[in-house]
Amino acid sequence: MPLETRPIKNGFAHELLGLRLWEPLDDSMTDKLRELWARHPVLVVRRQALSERELADFSALFGPLERVVRTEWASPAVPEVGLISNLKDGQAQPIGGLGDGELQWHSDQSYMMHPATGAALYALELPPKGGTTSWLDLAAAYAGLPDRLKQLVEGRNGVFSYVKRLAGYQVVDRVISSEAKRKTPPVLHPLVHTHPVTGINVLYLDSTTTIRIAGMDDASGCALLDEIYSFATRPEFVYRHEWQVGDIVMWDNGATMHRREPFDPTARRLMKRTTIFLSRERHIVPGGCLASEEAMA
Q1: Rounded to whole angstroms, how far apart are CA atoms 157 and 46?
Q2: Into how many domains does the chain fold?
Q3: Most C-beta atoms within 10 A of its C-beta, which of 19, 150, 245, 297?
Q4: Burial class of 89 by CB neighbour count within 10 A (0 to 12, 13 to 18, 19+)
């Protein structure tokens, strides 16, 4: 069947029409979807009804899947599928993570040296209001930056730390294993990358993990980051998604930030998620390094 798409937010996002993702896709359709995602960082597919295995199999068309690092959030049946939910089991234990609070602008796994930058989120149960997710176009934000800010950020590396991310979580989600701590020391990533397909410069930002800019004193670095965040989060760069049951949203963390609005903690919300190692030939995949003591000082 032909691939029909509807541009959203000046083409930053695209809605894919007529797909039945519970059915196998042929090689031609898969190639078209890969090319579309390389050029449009957010893809939306509505009216889907997928098992966890079908969600994982579809996601794997775009790259190897990561097993959920926070094992307490992983599906017991398909360990590549994570549960994002405020629901609890029969023993009153959370069945997943990231409950019901607000999540600030962030890029998943920015605190990793080699992040898995692809993600797909599938909506199964939704609160009557709230819980909306928004995505930020960091290519458009870079293009719109005043020249002064472009010059200041070009060639700079940010220091990204999971410790800062954890501090912003609800208490139940702050506890991680010693193995997870070992895998997440502070790392350096460039704050500007060039997209391998489009050749466009893109900001790489995360307000929940960036603790400083290497080579700048704290006051100057934080002031620069605050100024860039303030500009980049303007409404003209934001796609706000109103969830419907059956929606799947795929996004590229190398070219976006996203956030979630809070919702009533007594309302039910169940989402299932996969994390994908995207191709460096088609996507921005930051390759960082450990932050030295000098960078942290």
Answers
A1: 38
A2: 1
A3: 19
A4: exposed
- 230 φ/ψ angles, rounded to the nearest 5 degrees: -60, -40
Q: Domain range for residue 111?
A: 4-279
Tokens of 249: 């949203």
In a domain, 296, yes or no: no
pLDDT tens-digit map of 116-151: 999 999 999 999 999 999 999 999 999 999 999 999
Residue 293 lies inside a defined structural domain of this protein:
no
**Half-sphere CA count of 160, side-chain side, radius 13 A:** 29
Name 93's Cβ contacts closer than 8 Å, sequence gap at least 6: none
Whether 252 maps to a domain, the answer reads yes
Task: Give the CA distances from residue 95 to residues 84, 125, 192, in Å, rounded to whole numbers and listed in that order.
Answer: 8, 14, 37
Structure tokens given for 257: 């930030």
**pLDDT value at 171 more than 70:** no
Cα separation, 297 vs 292, whole angstroms: 9
Q: Are 193 and 254 in contact (CB under 8 A)?
A: yes
Predicted TM-score (pTM) of the model is 0.91
* CATH number of the domain residue 155 falls in: 3.60.130.10
